[in-house]
Amino acid sequence: GEVKVTDDFSYRSETIKTVTVASGITGIGDRTFSNCKNLKRISLPGTLRSIGVRAFGDTSITSIKLPNGLKSIGAYAFYQSKITSLDIPKTVTKIEEYAFSYCLGSVCIPGNVNTLPASLFEADMKLKKVTLGQGVSRIERAAFRHCGLTGVSFLDSVTVIGEGAFSFCADLRKVSLPKKLTEIGNGAFNN
């Protein structure tokens, strides 16, 4: 089943500090734990397949282990959380926009995620390191705009870098473009 928010949940959101999601749960619904400002720890089951829109947005979670078998991460899923680093399982094939904005210091994205959506890490000044897996082919508009990246190396699977994808990354000093790159959008590295 999927965890869903009940109408009377919001008044308790400030008191929740730890959550253990039961085995058998396959999805965490939209905004389920959003604005649980004191939520610091969450344990996810191996049965989890999807995380909904803003499911953990605006929480105090500092680390989370995403289970193997997870397939999708919704828009704004961890928006403005306190997560500092994250390894995304190789089973994830879809990540939606703004999923990690304003939160990460480093992230590993597997090659099964073919497209990094628009504004995925936008305004994440703490983001210093990104590791892309072989198979990531598209980096969409503003995916890393206003990030704290200092260098970027692309694997040969990257063929498209969208408009403003790395714009306003003031600390970006080194970029190694991939050999198979076919398109660079306007202002991709504009500062």
Please give a structural write-up.
The chain is globular, with a radius of gyration of 17 Å. By secondary structure, it is an all-beta fold. The model has no long low-confidence stretch (mean pLDDT 90). The chain has strands spanning 2-3, 18-20, 27-28, 41-43, 50-51, 72-73, 85-87, 94-95, 106-109, 115-116, 129-132, 138-139, 151-153, 160-161, 174-176, 183-184. The termini are far apart. The strands form five sheets. It has a five-stranded parallel sheet with strand order 1-3-5-6-8, with no helix packed on it. The chain has a four-stranded parallel sheet with strand order 10-12-14-16, with no helix packed on it. A three-stranded parallel sheet has the order 7-9-11, with no helix packed on it. Helices cover 0% and strands 21% of the residues. It has no helices and 16 strands.
Count every helix, treating DSSP H or I runs of 4 or more residues as helices.
0
Taken in chain order, the helices and strands follow as EEEEEEEEEEEEEEEE
Distance between the termini: 46 Å
Question: Biggest sheet: strands side by side, in what order?
Answer: 1-3-5-6-8
Helix percent reads: under 10%
Mean pLDDT: 90
Cα shape: globular
What's the β-strand tally? 16
